[in-house]
Amino acid sequence: MALPIYASPLERVWHWTYKVICTAIFIFLIAPILIVIPLSFNAEPYFTFTEKMLSFDPEGYSLRWYDMLLTFGMQAPDGPRDWSWWRDVLANATWFDVAWNSIIIGFFSTILATGLGTLAALGLSRSEMPWRRSIMAVLISPMIVPIIITATGLFFFYSKIEIQKWGVPYLGIIMAHATLGIPFVIITVTATLSGFDHSLSRAAASLGANPRTTFFKVIMPLILPGVVSGALFAFVTSFDEVVMVLFIAGHDEQTIPRQMWNGIREQISPAILAVATILVVVSIALLATVEILRRRSEKLRGVTAG
Amino acid sequence: MKKILTLSTALTAVGFAAAAQEVTVMSWGGAYTVSQVEAYHKPFTAETGIKVVSVDADNPATPIKAMVEAGNVTIDVADVEYADAIRLCDEGLLEEIDPSILPAAPDGTPATEDFLPGALTDCAVASIVFSTVFAYDTTKFPEGPTTMADFFDLEGFPGKRGMRKGAKANLEMALMADGVPADEVYALLETDEGVAQAFAMLDKIKADTIWWEAGAQPPQLLADGEVVMTTAYNGRIFAAQVAEAKPFEIVWDGQVYEYDLFVIPKGAPNMEAALEFVKFSTDTQRLADQAKWISYGPGRKSSGALVGLYQDGVTEMAPHMPTSAENLTNALASSYEFWVDRDSELNERFNAWLAQ
Amino acid sequence: MVAIETSGGEGLRGGLLTTADGKPLKQALAHAQARARRKALLLVVPLLAFIVITFVVPIGQLLFRSIHNDGFSANMPQISAWFDETKAGDAPDEAAYAALVADIAAAAEARTIGVVGTRVNYELSGTRSLFTSAGRNAEDLEPPYREALLDLNAKWGDPQLWGVMRSVSSAYSANFYLAALDLARDENGDIVRAPEDRRIYGMLFMRTLWLSALITGLCLILAYPVAHLLAVLPLAKSNLLMILVLLPFWTSLLVRTTSWMVMLQEQGVINNTMVALGLVGNESRIQMMYNQAGTIIAMTHILLPFMILPLYSVMRPINPSYVRAARSLGATSWTAFRRVYLPQTLPGIGAGALLVFILSVGYYITPALVGGASGQLISNLIAYHMQDSLNWSLAAALAALLLAGVLILYWLYDRLIGIDNLKLG
C-alpha cells in the first residue's frame, strides 16, 4: 500500500482520503459490536453513556445487569446466596433455562447436520457423482430461501404430522436447525476436499489398506479441520436463529435469541446488553477457533497460507 | 419412520417419567403477568403443588386460534379480551366453562350473581376490568394534555405519539377526539362514513406515530423518550409511575374500558389443572389480591371491598382504578357486539391503511 | 476391483479388449463406473432424503395451501352443491336461498360459521359480519328465505356476493395469488385491480426490491475500498484487519440489531453524541429508528461482510503489475483503475451483489425490530398473515411469489458464479 514515488499531489491527497474512508468503514463495522460491552456495565438503566461512565468514575459502573440475568425468573431472588439460592437459579432463572435449550438444540442439530453433511460432501466431491450440480443446488438452497418461508412451511408440516405428540423433546426445532446448518457444512467440507490429494487414498489402497482404514486413517484426519469448522458454522447458525423458534418451537423450547427478541421488543434494559456482551465473547472464541483450524488445514494440505 | 417412533417412545419414557403436573398460562407479559404471577400462580402452586408455566403473547387470542386450527395446542389457560372471548367461543375454539363450578363469595352469594354484569360467558370468566388510556411524559408537558382531542393535536402538543398496532380502541378514541359523544361512537362506526371519519382523524398523526404491539412497550417508549405521549393499558402506566417512579401521567378522558377474561382453548393438554386454576384464580380474595400489584378493577363485586393499598403499603389504589367514578366522566365501554363481528374486517383495513 | 489384463494373448479375443474373467473391457468399465456412481450417490442419499422431508415437502405443502382453501366448501355443502348444478351468472332462486339458510344454520350450530364468513371476507371485504350475524339469527328465519335474509341485511341480494360465494364454493382457486398482486374479481368474474385503499402488496414488493437494491448498492460502495485494502496489504496485516470483518459476521444477528437500537434511539449514543457536539439541538434529535432509515442502516451493517468476503477473494490474486503496466503506458490512475483493475473484480462484484440482494429480499427480523411501519418488507407481511390475521392462504401465496423471485436469482447465481464457488470466512 506504499505510495509510488511518481504519485502526483492529487494522488497523494486521494491516498490519504482513501485511508480515512477505510478506517471509517472499519469503525462502522466494529463499533456497534463493541459499544454494547461498556454499556452493559452501566449502573443506570439507560442505553447511553452517563457522565460518571465518561469520567471513569467506578460508581458509574456495576454488575447489576449481569446479576439480573441470574435472578430474572427466580422464585426467591432476594434470599441469601447459599446452596438453595443457586439451585433456584439453575431450576428457574429464565436466562439459564433458555441458554440450556440453546445448547441442547445447537448441539444435536450440529451433530445431525455435520454427520449427514460430511457424508454427502464426500459423495459430492467424487468425480463420478451424477447430477452433481443440481443436487448441490438443492442442498445449498436452505441457506438461500428466506427463513420465513421455510419456517411457515415447517409450521404446517409439523402440525400435520403432530410432531409434538411424538414425545421427543426438541425434535422439530432440531431438525429445522439442522436443515439450516447443512449448507454451511457442505460448503466448508467440499472446499476442504477440493484441495484433497486423491493420490493419498490411492497410495493407502495400494499399501493394502481397506476402504474403511483408508477413510479413518488417511482421509478423516486431513478433512477434519474442514468438518470442524463446518460444524461450528452449523452450531452458530442454530445458536443465532430466531425465526424458526418463533414459528415452530414450543413454549418450553425457547432459546437465547428468542428471549432476546422478547426483551428487545418489550424493554431493552441493559440486561439485554449483558447477554449481548456474553454472546460477543462467545463469537470471538468461535472465530478464533475457526481461524486456527483454517490455518492448520492449509498447513496440512500443503497450501501456503492465504 | 418406525425407528424414529421407537426411539421417541424410549425417550418419552425417560424424559417424562418424572414430570410433575403443570398448567401453562398465556398472558400479556410485563407488569400484568407479574401481577398474575404474584396473585394467582404462586399461591396456586403453593396450595395444589401444580406448577404454573407462564407464557407471554402480544394478544393471547391470536395464538389460540392458530394453535387450535393447526391442531397443536400447547397452552391450558389464556387471558383474552371480551370480544375475542366471545368470538373464539362462537368459532368453537374454546372449552365451555360451567359457571356453577366457580367458588361463591365469602358471604355465600353464588358466583353467577357475584360477578359483574356480563363477566361470565359460555366459555370465559372475567378476572379484571382494564382501560386503554393515553398517558404523557410530564417532563415534556408540565401543563399536560387534558382531553382526548389533545392527543391528536400535534401543534398544541408536538412530539411523537405511540399507539397500539390494531384497529380496536384506536378508532373509538379517534372519534371521541373528533367530538363524538361516547354513546354515539359505535352507532357511527357501524357506518362507512364513521369508519372513514376515524381514519381521517388517525391520518393527522400517522406520520408521527410509533406503533406498539406488546403491552409492555408503551411505558418503555415513553421512558426512552421515543414518544411524548402514547396510548397504553392503564395498569402498565401505573406500574411505571408507582413502582419505577417514572414521570408519567394518565389522562382519564376518552378512554375505552373492558374485561379481560380467562379462557381454556379447545384441546388443552391439561384440562383438569386448567379448570382448577381458573376456579382458584377467580375467587373473591385472589381477584382482590391482583389489585395489590396492578391498577385493574376486579371482576367480582365482593372483591371490590377488599381492594386497598398497593403492595408498597402506601399508595391508595382507588384513584388509579379504571372503575373509579371520578375516572369515568367521559369513558366508553368497549362494545363486544361491535368487535366480535367487525374485528377482522377493520384490522384488515387498518393494516392496509398503515402500509400505505 | 476389476483386474484388467491387456498384455496377455487371452485378453485379445477377436480384436476386443477383455478383462481377466473374459468380459469385454468396455462393459467392465461401464460396470465399474456405474458402481462408483452408485457409491457416490449412496453417500448423498441420506442427506437428500433429510432435506426432502424437512425442507422440500413442507414448502410444497405451503404452496399447495396457496391454491387450496376449503373454509367455505367444506362447511356449506348444500349451497356449494347448488353452485355446482347451476352456471355462472344464474340468479339465485328460492332453492338457493333455502340451501344457504340451511347451511348457515348448520354452520352456526357446528360453530364453523366464523370460518365460512372469514373465507368469503378474504374475497369481499366487509362480509364476515354478514355471515356471523345471520348465523345468530338462523333459527328464526322462515320461508320464503329470500325475503327473510334480505330483511336481515339487504347485502344478501348483492350479485357480487353471490359471485364470490360461487368462486369460493370450490376449494381450489387462484384468487389468493390475485390478492397478493392487488387484483380481485368483479361480479362477472373478470380480473380487476383491487380498491385503492387495499392495494398494498404491489407496493410492498416494490419497496422490498428497492430497499434490497439500495442496501446492495450501499454494501458495494462500502465493501469495495475495504476489500481492496485487505487485498493489497501484506498478509500479516490484512489477516489482522480481517478480524474486524469476520467478527460482525460471527456475531449474533440479534446482538447486532440490539446494538443498532442502542445507537439509533432518540436518546441513543449517536443522537447524544451529536447533541453533545452541538451538531443538532436537544429538541430536534434525528429519528433514525422505527422507519426506513433504521432498516437500511442496520441491514447494510449486517450484510456488509457478505459483500467484502467474495470481493476480497477475487481481489487477492489480482497481479498488481497489470495496473503498474497501465500506468507506465501513460494511463492516469483513474483510467488504470477503470480499464484494468475494475474489470478484473467484476466476478466478485457479481457474486457479492447477488448474494446480498438474495439475502436482503427475505429479511424479517431486523425490519421487524427497527423498521417501524415504513421499514417493513414483504417477509414481515407474510409473518403478519401467518401470525396475526391468520389468512394462511394469502401468506402462502405471498411466500410463493417471494420464493419464485429468490429462486430465479439463485438460478442466476448458479449460472454466473456457480454454487460450488460459494465461500465462507
TrEMBL record, chain A:
Gene3D superfamilies: MetI-like. It is a multi-pass membrane protein. It is found in: Cell inner membrane; Cell membrane. GO terms for biological process: transmembrane transport. It comes from the Bacteria. The chain crosses the membrane at residues 20-41, 98-124, 136-158, 170-193, 214-236, 271-293. Pfam families: BPD_transp_1. The keyword Ribosomal protein does not apply. Keywords: Cell inner membrane, Cell membrane, Membrane, Transmembrane, Transmembrane helix, Transport. InterPro entries: MetI-like, MetI-like_sf. One of its GO terms (cellular component) is plasma membrane. Residues 99-290 form the ABC transmembrane type-1 domain. Belongs to the binding-protein-dependent transport system permease family. This is ABC transporter permease subunit. The lineage of its organism: Bacteria, Pseudomonadati, Pseudomonadota, Alphaproteobacteria, Rhodobacterales.
UniProtKB/TrEMBL annotation, chain B:
Transmembrane segments: none annotated. The keyword Cell inner membrane does not apply. CDD domains: PBP2_polyamine_RpCGA009. SUPFAM superfamilies: Periplasmic binding protein-like II. Residues 1-19 form the signal peptide. Pfam families: SBP_bac_8. Keywords: Signal. Gene3D superfamilies: Periplasmic binding protein-like II (3.40.190.10). This is Extracellular solute-binding protein. The lineage of its organism: Bacteria, Pseudomonadati, Pseudomonadota, Alphaproteobacteria, Rhodobacterales.
From TrEMBL, chain C:
It holds the Pfam family BPD_transp_1. Gene3D superfamilies: MetI-like. The chain crosses the membrane at residues 40-64, 208-227, 239-255, 293-315, 349-370, 390-413. PROSITE patterns: ABC_TM1. Keywords: Cell membrane, Membrane, Transmembrane, Transmembrane helix, Transport. It is found in: Cell membrane. It comes from the Bacteria. PANTHER family: ABC TRANSPORTER PERMEASE PROTEIN, INNER MEMBRANE ABC TRANSPORTER PERMEASE PROTEIN YDCU-RELATED-RELATED. This is ABC transporter permease subunit.
